Amino acid sequence: MSEYFINTKDFNYLVSDLMDKSRVAAPAGEFGRKYWFDVDGDSLGRIDLTGYRTVEPCKAYLFKPTELVARYFDGDTHLSAGPLVLLGARACDLEGINVLDRVFGEGDQDPFYLVSREKTVLIGADCTDCGASCFCSLVGGGPYPTACFDLSLAVVPNGYVVEVGSEKGKKIIDDHRNIFARVLPPAAAAKKENREKVEAKLKRVNQGFSTGELSLLHKLNLENDIWRRLTKDCVECSACNFICPTCSCFLLVDEASSGLNRRHKLWDACLKAGYAKVAGGGNSRPRLFQRLQNRYHCKFDYSFDRLSRYTCVGCGRCIDGCAGNIDMREIFAALDREIKK
Amino acid sequence: MTSNPYQPIRAEIKEVIAETPQIKTFVLAPEKEIGFLSGQFMQVTIPGVGEAPFTPSSDPKKNDMIEFTVMKAGQATGRLHELKSGETVGLRGPFGHPYPLDKYHGKDVYIIGGGVGIAPLRALLLALFHELERLNKIELRLGARSPEDLPFKQEMPTWGKREKTNLVVTVDRGDEKWPGKVGVVTEIMLPGDVNPEAAAAIVCGPPIMMKFAVKKLLDLGFSDKDIYLSMEKNMSCGIGKCFHCNLGKHLCCVDGPVFTWEQVKEIPDPW
Description:
Number of strands of chain B: 15
CATH class of the largest domain in chain B: Alpha Beta
Helix content of chain A: 25-40%
Radius of gyration of chain B: 18 Å
Order of helices and strands of chain A: EHEEEEHHEEEHHHHHEEHHH
Order of helices and strands of chain B: EEEEEHEEHEHEEEHEEEHEH
Shape of chain A: globular
Protein name (chain A): 4Fe-4S ferredoxin-type domain-containing protein
CATH topology of the largest domain in chain B: Rossmann fold
Distance between the termini of chain B: 36 Å
Number of helices of chain A: 11
GO molecular function, one term (chain A): metal ion binding
Number of strands of chain A: 10
Organism (chain A): candidate division WOR-1 bacterium RIFOXYC12_FULL_54_18
Strand order of the largest sheet of chain A: 1-8-7-6-5-2-3
Strand content of chain A: 15-25%
InterPro entries (chain A): 4Fe4S_Fe-S-bd, 4Fe4S_Fe_S_CS
Oligomer: heterodimer
Domain 4Fe-4S ferredoxin-type (chain A): 224-255, 300-331
C-alpha cells in the first residue's frame, strides 16, 4: 500500500479543499471526550486526531436515525445523498461500517444506505491511546486501520503519515500531488512506535478478560441459565443498541399527512420489549434477559452464520453507555468460567 | 442500485368476505401482477397506518387477484378489518422461501392447520391440487376453537371431495349443530393416516398448536427434515435488513418463513 507524508499546514489546506466539495465530519475534543462534528472554515483547528474513538460512532452519517423511505402511492422518494468525508474514523469505526456495508449491501440491497455510502470518503486514523473500555483486540481488531478505508492517517511529529486504501483515496492523493511527500524514516518510526505503544496498552487494559473463541463460548452457553444472572442489571435502556457502530435494526413507521402517506425507517433496539412482539401478543423473547442474551448471540454467534465474522468491533461504547454497568468483557469471562466448570 | 424495496404498490379491495367473527378474506386487485409461491408472504400496507405480513390464501396460479385471509389481532389488522370493497391498500413482496412442492412429489402430504393458520394452507392446497397426479395423497387435519371460528366454511368441505384427498376437521368446543369431531387437532392425527417414511407434514397455526403438532408428528415417526413449519415472526422489512424476525441464527423473512423442524429444533423455544 502506498504511503505519503503530509505536514500539518498542508493537511489543513487539504481539509479546506475537501470542504469545498464535500461535507466533512471529524472528531473534536469536548469536556475530555471526543465527538463527531461538522467541520467548517472556522472550526478547522478543532479537529483532533489524537486519542481514541469518539463517544458516538459515525454510523448515523450513513444509516440515519430516521429517514423517509417511501411516499405512497404516487409520491416519488428522494434517493440521493451529498458527498461526505468522514475524517478520523478509528479502526473500530471502519470495521463497523464494513458490517453495515455487508448488512445493507448483500442479498437484497437497501438503496438508502448504499446511496449515502457511495458518496462517502472514509479517512481513518490510528489511535494514539486506548480507553478503559476499548477491547478491539479481543475481537480480532487493533488500534489502527487495516481495511475499509480510502485513506488512513497516523499522527506523527509535524504532520501525518497517509496510507492509501482504495482508488477513491488514490484520487485524493493524485488531485493534491504537490502536498504529499515521501515518508522519511523518523516519521515511519514514530508511526510504528505509536502503534506498538497502543497495542501494548490495549493488552494491559484487557488483561484477564481474554477468553479465546467467543463464538464457541456463546454456542456452548446458549441454554445456560447463567444469562439470567449475568444480565440482571440491564434496565432495557437500549443505550448499547443505539451507541453500537454495528447495530442496524430498524422499524418501518407509516404516517399520513396532507393526503400523502409516508414511510420512515427509524433506528430500533432489540432490547425493547415490543421488538419481537407480533399481533395477538406473541413474543419470541418476552423476558429482558432473553433479549440481552439474543443481542450477544447476534454479535458473537449468529453473525458467523450470516457474515462469517463477529459483528462486535470491540469499541466498548456499550460498556461506557450502560446504565447497569454491564461490561461485555466480564460476561465473556463468566461464560468462559461456565464451560470450564 | 436496486429499486426501492420499501415502496408499496397499490391494490384495490375488490371484495371482503367475512369468514368468522374475527377473520375476513380480502380479495385484492394489485395494480401490477404479482407472482407468488405458496408459503411466501407479503407485506400489506394499510395506508398511513402501517404494514403487517401475511401469506396469501389464494391460488398462486391466479395472478390478477390475490387474497389474504386475516384475523383481527392488532392495530394494523384492526384497521384492515374496517376497510371496504373499493378502498386501497398497498402491497410489497412476495418475500421468503415457499413450500418446496417438488419435495412432496411421490409422497403423502399431511397438512395440519389451526385457526387462521388454515389461510396459508389454503394457498398450498390449491397449488397442490394442480399437481395431484404427482402426489401419493393429501391428508388434511384442520381445527379451530369453535365451529364459527372455522374459515372457508363453504369451500372447506369440497377439499375433502377431491381425488386423493381426505379431510378431518375438529373444533375445541362444538355446538348442537356441529356434526364433526371435538378436541384439539393433535387428537385427530392418528397412526396410519400417512406413512411417515414417505410423507411430508406441513403445520401452520397458533404457536402452541404448532408446538404440540410437531411433538405428535415426531411420536408418529416423522423425521425432523420432513416436518415443514410456517414460522411467522415479526417480519417487517421483508429483505433481511431490519432483523425484527430473527429466530436464532435465522431471519424468518429471508431464510423462512417456511422452515423444517430440522432447521429450528436447536433454538430454545422457537415458538
